[in-house]
Design goal:
Helices cover 33% and strands 22% of the residues. It is an alpha+beta fold and 241 residues long. It has one domain: Peroxisomal Thiolase, Chain A, domain 1 (3-Layer(aba) Sandwich), CATH 3.40.47.10. The model has no long low-confidence stretch (mean pLDDT 91).
Length: 241
């Protein structure tokens, strides 16, 4: 399976523009801090409904849309984990649940908010990534492109889990979102070619032992080359000849 990345953006712990990511790759800038992604381009009413994770998604994906109506595929292992945990605490305390809070906690909430904010009519899909989210997202993207979509936005996003889950699940160290504008055909010399290829020795770690998987992808996108194991038998090749 082959794809072309015509553009990409990522946000993680305050690092968002390409120059900052280049500095990070060279070891000149470190991830850390509790900053939230800038979504000042949205109306105040919409901003207030966005969680820190949703803000990271909007910050990365919105500029790539370029006011075009193309499908969105949002892939996350846990989705709005902090919102869901807050609701569960309310249930445990026998409190009444807010319908709005519940609606904003479901797995496709961010995809729906994005579709509404951008006024798009194309499909906006949310995918639970499972053990190998990069593989899951890319296979789903391949299906959409094969069905006739010319382009789509593929977004990976994760946030730090509540501490009570730590004994049973590894947590992403940071809130992180990575957005790729994908198509089937190369149209520019700056495009990046992705190939999802079978490999008997890929041997990827599950996201539950490699929770910061997006940083592997970001590193290869910056370098414009690399091989990333995305499951036990598949790897992602970047600009492989």
């Amino acid at each position: 399976m082959e794809f072309v990345v015509s553009n990409w953006r990522a946000w993680c712990s305050g690092i968002s523009d390409q120059s900052d990511w280049q500095d990070w790759r060279r070891g000149e800038k470190q991830l850390g801090g509790n900053s939230q992604a800038d979504v000042s381009f949205l109306p105040a009413m919409q901003r207030r409904r966005l969680s820190p994770l949703a803000k990271a998604v909007f910050h990365t994906a919105f500029p790539l849309l370029q006011q075009e109506d193309i499908p969105l595929l949002l892939c996350s292992v846990h989705g709005e984990a902090m919102r869901t945990y807050s609701l569960l605490q309310g249930v445990a305390a026998r409190e009444d649940l807010s319908p709005t809070a519940f609606g904003l906690s479901v797995h496709n909430a961010i995809a729906g908010q994005f579709s509404i904010a951008c006024k798009t009519r194309s499909p906006a899909l949310a995918l639970a990534g499972g053990d190998f989210p990069m593989q899951s997202g890319l296979i789903e993207a391949a299906g959409l492109l094969q069905e006739g979509e010319e382009e789509l936005l593929l977004v990976f996003c994760e946030e730090t889990l509540p501490e009570m889950y730590y004994p049973s699940a590894e947590s992403s160290t940071y809130i992180c979102a990575t957005a790729l504008r994908l198509s089937k055909h190369k149209s520019s010399d700056t495009d990046i070619k992705l190939s999802l290829t079978a490999s008997e020795c890929a041997g990827a770690e599950s996201v539950f032992t490699e929770p910061d998987y997006q940083l592997l992808l970001i590193r290869s996108l910056i370098d414009r080359e690399g091989r990333i194991p995305v499951s036990e038998r598949w790897e992602l090749q970047i600009n492989a000849s």
